[in-house]
Automatic annotation (TrEMBL):
Coiled coil: none annotated. Belongs to the peptidase S28 family. PANTHER family: LYSOSOMAL PRO-X CARBOXYPEPTIDASE, PROTEASE S28 PRO-X CARBOXYPEPTIDASE-RELATED. Keywords: Glycoprotein, Hydrolase, Protease, Signal. Residues 1-26 form the signal peptide. It comes from the Eukaryota. The keyword Hydrolase applies. The keyword Signal applies. One of its GO terms (biological process) is proteolysis. One of its GO terms (molecular function) is dipeptidyl-peptidase activity. It holds the Pfam family Peptidase_S28. This is Lysosomal Pro-X carboxypeptidase.
Length: 507
């Protein structure tokens, strides 16, 4: 997830862009993927994938599912992508696999969810990927993003509960159109999309028979897990490669501050890190480095990838190798540059790094609003952290949101609506057929469900795994643990579908 700047000092990490919130110090809170600073051309923009994978459709969606004011009856066009090549058809009650879209362009997530395409032939499944309202091309208010994002009057319709209701409405209508009322629906999602998949199964058991919820931090909310957990995992990722690597990064914040205060220091930093000469600020430099370390930890995949940025296999290891390649004190900044260069310039095309680039290639900006309303995920750094120490302050966070949107966050709404406290006991009593996948190298796994709950609510935990690695396309280089996990997920989903057919045969 990514870095978003909010008033300069305040940026938010989204889930794929870990919404990073930089407060007055240089501290940053992560969000999911990162829209900030992409010197690379994304492969997905080349268009070659765009046409061959699915057909694009639009559905007339209701603006507000929970209100009968005349204004609520307004509609908007919601995008969804569909692939029926492998579908066994309505007569055979062949399954429908639905991806519950995240906080960004649905085509981007679709192209990073190869698992569904690769398994569709085996299941004879119809594939549907639904875009989340207010993202991509699914913008209310006539598709006019300026109006939709203008202020709380219009942004107020951007929420997880509205999104889930959109998904239910669309799926029910699509099944009706296909005369496929009896086809079982399984929902899939990664990151925030994974949270939505799990919540969808919990809230709409009559629409989906099961959910694969990958890297979904449904417990990263107030009073559920420690606010330090995210940061601790990033720290551990680097420490696990080498103690020196951890120490160099940990020591860099003070070093950078000190150098920046010297005469000519800022210019020295600019040149060392090859920052473009249009804009240079020490806070922005620190945020830029922090983004590199956090997102690389999140996407520490075992094979070369291009999700947030093009990266080699095991990129955290590569970064630490760069940092460890010289122990001489005076090379320190140069080594940090080399490590950051792995995240920002693996393709080798960057001329310089623009700290003032606020482009958002995956359209993740709406997360800021979501973080300021219901997705309040407390984050902090303790004294062992690889980043500078920082305590979570709901008051500061809330003040920033009020300043930005003239609204106050509702930190307890998500747990009121979906639960979270005592999750094991509650899900045991109330739900079934959910896979929670987490990779423990992924800092978001700290807010994930890591324990088996019942026979059908299963936690699959990969020690070496990163952010929703299971949903990615398979490659020849995939390690055995990853192949095993995907196989296990297929077997579990197959058992749900079998059970469903047995149950309806009895009726
Ligand atoms: C569905 O996806 C496959 C690749 O998995 C592709 O070959 C096929 O053309 C796609 N079908 C449609 C209708 O887009
Ligand atoms: C929000 O923006 C719209 C359109 O620009 C405007 O009419 C409305 O008064 C604004 N509402 C608030 C609460 O600022
Ligand atoms: C179902 O069919 C109606 C009538 O053609 C259409 O307006 C609607 O968009 C379709 N639903 C979906 C989910 O595509
Ligand atoms: C990016 O990598 C290429 C190839 O290694 C290198 O020539 C170039 O200087 C790098 N760009 C920056 C900004 O460091
Ligand atoms: C949960 O149970 C499955 C078997 O159904 C097992 O493979 C998996 O390792 C268990 N998960 C945990 C976290 O113990």
């Amino acid at each position: 997830m990514a870095l978003i700047f909010f008033h300069y000092k305040f940026s938010l990490f989204s889930l794929l862009s870990l919404l990073f919130i930089t407060f007055t110090s240089s501290h940053i809170i992560p969000r999911f993927p990162s829209p900030l600073i992409h010197p690379e051309q994304q492969i997905i923009n080349s268009g070659s994938l765009q046409n061959g994978l699915y057909k694009t459709k639009f559905f007339t969606q209701r603006l507000d599912h929970f209100n009968y004011n005349p204004q609520s009856y307004q509609t908007f066009q919601q995008r969804y992508l569909i692939n029926d090549t492998y579908w066994g058809g309505a007569k055979k009650k062949a399954p429908i696999f639905v991806y519950t879209g995240n906080e960004g362009h649905i085509d981007w997530f679709t192209q990073n969810t190869g698992f569904m395409f690769e398994k569709a032939p085996y299941f004879n499944a119809l594939l549907v990927f639904i875009e989340h309202r207010f993202y991509g091309k699914s913008i209310p208010f006539g598709g006019n993003k300026k109006v939709a994002y203008a202020n709380s009057t219009t942004l107020g319709y951007l929420s997880s509960t509205q999104a889930l209701a959109d998904y239910a409405t669309l799926i029910i209508d699509l099944k009706k159109n296909l005369s496929a009322t009896h086809s079982p629906v399984v929902v899939f999602g990664g990151s925030y999309g994974g949270m939505l998949a799990a919540w969808f199964r919990i809230k709409y058991p009559h629409v989906a028979i099961g959910a694969l919820s990958s890297s979904a931090p449904i417990l990263q909310f107030t009073d559920l897990v420690s606010p330090y957990v995210f940061d601790n995992i990033v720290t551990q990722d680097f420490k696990s490669e080498s103690e020196n690597c951890y120490k160099v990064i940990k020591g860099s914040w003070k070093l950078i501050e000190e150098i920046s205060q010297k005469h000519g220091g800022l210019e020295l930093l600019r040149k060392t890190f090859r920052i473009c000469n249009n804009y240079m600020e020490v806070d922005a430099l620190e945020g830029w480095l922090q983004t590199a370390w956090v997102y690389t930890a999140m996407t520490d995949y075992p094979t070369p990838t291009n999700f947030l940025n093009p990266l080699p296999a095991y990129p955290v290891k590569k970064m630490c190798e760069a940092i460890d390649s010289s122990k001489r004190e005076k090379d320190r900044l140069g080594k940090l540059y080399e490590a950051a260069n792995i995240y920002y310039n693996y393709s080798g095309n960057a001329k310089c790094f623009n700290l003032n680039d606020h482009s958002d290639p995956h359209g993740l900006a709406g997360w800021q609003w979501q973080a300021c309303t219901e997705m309040v995920m407390p984050m902090a750094s303790n004294k062992e952290s690889i980043f500078t120490r920082y305590e979570w302050s709901f008051e500061d966070f809330s003040a920033s949101c009020e300043n930005e949107y003239k609204i106050l966050p509702r930190p307890n709404w998500i747990t009121s609506e979906f639960g979270g406290h005592d999750i094991e006991a509650v899900l045991k009593r109330s739900s079934g057929n959910i896979i929670f996948f987490n990779g423990l190298r992924d800092p978001w796994s700290g807010g994930g469900v890591l324990k088996n709950i019942t026979k059908s609510i299963v936690a699959i935990v990969a020690k070496e795994g990163a952010h929703h690695v299971d949903l990615r396309y398979s490659t020849k280089e995939d390690p055995k643990w990853l192949k095993d996990i995907r196989k296990q997920e297929v077997e579990i989903i197959e058992s749900w579908i079998k059970q469903y057919y047995q149950d309806i045969a009895k009726i």
